[in-house]
């Protein structure tokens, strides 16, 4: 199986190669096959991309907002028309099940382009009366924004960054994760087809060093990273040195609280979605599932029953629920956490191993895994695992669970299941998280802001809130009378 792109990078409207850059491989996680070989961006490639973006941004910002909106909408239409091919590529790039990529990746990217197209056409400032003067504000683009992606949602992440950035009149240089370099190149092609100026959206490939070079490039005005907390710390510090704007979409260890009056089937469904979707490789996953003691045994029994039915296997088979982990390194890291869970005294309810059989031999598969009897101090309850591993903890009271749920450096997401409407809002108000779901989990429509508090990040993607992170206000003060000067 091959998915070799025409060249590694997409700059100024065309594919570009520079074989002087270090070669790296894109591997299909289900089989271990090398599906593409790419070259990391050299300093010359980075400069070329930044110069192209800089030129294109000036042109783009001079277009009428409605014209910019039209390009974004066309790009959304093209993505939808090609959803099948793009989803297949995403499955090859990530190893995620095709039944997911068909509905959650390219289509979510299209949603965001369409939604921010509408925002582009309606961006405006305000007018402030000041007696013998008045002022007005203008929302201006930042310039060239750098986007750096994680590997779990390569198309969605590229679109979630590009859509608000371009809507506000910026250009973008995007560096996908080195694990999933292929999908963003297709998006770059689509923007050109949709009528964007050449250079408006460029893709350069590479590892962390390329990301670091982009984050500190003299032409970069903003860095938007989706990645882990340690990388976020480095990128934030690097961007700060040049007083650059940032959006940091980082990791989590989110709590999902199930009260004993919850609809049991819904709560279990939410917990499974929040731990096993994308083979557990979702930043907002509710990996600490706190279940009130009255329903704990029933919850675990039914959870095990439903988890046993998860179909693990070939990600290109539409019946498959759970594909492999992104890489051998991630597989081994998750297996080490499972071993740690056992060693520290958590009780394995189901899973915990590598599925057996010829079909799984070359892939990086791990069974969906549930631990019970997990306590707050265990490693699996404290660190982000980023794999299909659910930790179930028990609790007695609302007061206790809120305190324990908040007892983490992370604060990306939270969820709760209860039928008590007052308790639902009370607890949502007290959970320290950027997004909190009541009686559902992990829904991220583009209309609502998404992002973390505490170490999970800064800024917001999606929703109207994202506009503030891809634009800046200029205030113009206009005198209507004489200058009142004592000199
Ligand atoms: P990662 O931090 O290893 O890498 C993310 C990106 O940063 C990659 O493109 C990488 O090449 C680049 N990078 C690495 N070092 C860099 C540096 N010093 N300077 C600039 N760029 C650098 O993350 P990952 O393993 O690809 O993704 C998994 C992590 O991403 C998890 O922690 C997950 O929670 C998080 N994530 C967060 C969100 C969110 O929206 N909050 C979404 C998806 C994933």
From TrEMBL:
K(+) 2 binds at residues 454, 457. Keywords: Metal-binding, NAD, NADP, Oxidation, Oxidoreductase, Potassium. PROSITE patterns: ALDEHYDE_DEHYDR_CYS (PS00070), ALDEHYDE_DEHYDR_GLU (PS00687). Its cofactor is K(+). GO terms for molecular function: betaine-aldehyde dehydrogenase (NAD+) activity; metal ion binding. Its EC number is 1.2.1.8. NAD(+) binds at residues 149-151, 175-178, 251, 283, 384. The active site is at residues 161, 249, 283, 461. Residues 15-476 form the Aldehyde dehydrogenase domain. Binds 2 potassium ions per subunit. CDD domains: ALDH_F9_TMBADH. One of its GO terms (biological process) is glycine betaine biosynthetic process from choline. Pathway: Amine and polyamine biosynthesis; betaine biosynthesis via choline pathway; betaine from betaine aldehyde: step 1/1. It is an enzyme of class 1 (oxidoreductase). The modification Cysteine sulfenic acid (-SOH) is found at residue 283. It catalyses: betaine aldehyde + NADP(+) + H2O = glycine betaine + NADPH + 2 H(+); betaine aldehyde + NAD(+) + H2O = glycine betaine + NADH + 2 H(+). NCBIfam families: BADH, PRK13252.1. PANTHER family: ALDEHYDE DEHYDROGENASE-RELATED. Dimer of dimers. Belongs to the aldehyde dehydrogenase family. This is Betaine aldehyde dehydrogenase. The gene is betB.
């Amino acid at each position: 199986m091959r998915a070799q792109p025409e060249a590694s990078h997409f700059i100024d409207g065309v594919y570009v190669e520079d074989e002087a850059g270090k070669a790296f491989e894109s591997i299909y996680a289900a089989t271990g096959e090398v599906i593409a070989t790419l070259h990391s961006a050299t300093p010359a490639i980075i400069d070329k991309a930044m110069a192209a973006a800089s030129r294109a941004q000036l042109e783009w910002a001079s277009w009428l907002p409605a014209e910019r909106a039209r390009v974004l909408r066309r790009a959304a239409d093209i993505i939808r028309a090609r959803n099948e091919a793009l989803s297949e590529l995403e499955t090859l790039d990530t190893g995620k099940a095709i039944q997911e990529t068909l509905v959650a990746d390219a289509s979510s990217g299209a949603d965001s382009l369409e939604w921010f197209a509408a925002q582009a056409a309606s961006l405006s400032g305000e007018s402030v009366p000041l007696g013998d003067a008045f002022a007005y504000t203008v929302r201006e683009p930042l310039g060239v924004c750098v986007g750096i992606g994680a590997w779990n949602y390569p198309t969605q992440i590229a679109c979630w960054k590009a859509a608000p950035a371009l809507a506000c009149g910026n250009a973008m240089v995007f560096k996908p994760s080195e694990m999933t370099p292929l999908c963003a190149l297709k998006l770059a092609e689509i923007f050109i087809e949709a009528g964007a100026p050449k250079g408006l959206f460029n893709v350069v490939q590479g590892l962390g060093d390329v990301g670091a070079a982009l984050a500190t490039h003299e032409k970069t005005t903003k860095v938007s990273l989706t990645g882990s907390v340690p990388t976020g710390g480095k990128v934030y510090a690097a961007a700060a040195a040049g007083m650059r704007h940032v959006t940091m979409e980082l990791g989590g260890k989110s709590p999902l609280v199930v009260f004993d009056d919850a609809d049991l089937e819904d709560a279990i469904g939410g917990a499974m979605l929040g731990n096993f979707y994308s083979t557990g490789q979702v930043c907002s996953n509710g990996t600490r599932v706190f279940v009130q003691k009255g329903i704990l045994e029933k919850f675990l029994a039914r959870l095990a029953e439903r988890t046993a039915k998860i179909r693990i296997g070939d990600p290109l088979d539409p019946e498959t629920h759970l594909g492999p982990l992104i890489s051998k390194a991630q597989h081994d890291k998750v297996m080490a956490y499972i071993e740690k869970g056992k060693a520290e005294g958590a009780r394995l309810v189901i899973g915990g191993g590598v599925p057996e059989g010829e079909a799984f031999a070359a892939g990086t598969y791990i069974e969906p895994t549930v631990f019970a009897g997990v306590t707050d101090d265990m490693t699996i309850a404290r660190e982000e695992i980023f794999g299909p591993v659910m930790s179930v903890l028990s609790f007695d009271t609302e007061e206790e669970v809120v305190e324990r749920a908040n007892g983490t450096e992370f604060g990306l997401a939270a969820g709760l299941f209860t039928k008590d409407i007052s308790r639902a809002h009370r607890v949502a108000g007290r959970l320290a998280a950027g997004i909190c779901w009541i009686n559902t989990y992990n829904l991220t429509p583009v209309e609502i802001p998404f992002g973390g508090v505490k170490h999970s990040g800064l800024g917001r993607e999606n929703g109207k809130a994202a506009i503030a992170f891809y634009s800046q206000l200029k205030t113009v003060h206009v005198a209507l009378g004489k200058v009142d000067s004592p000199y």
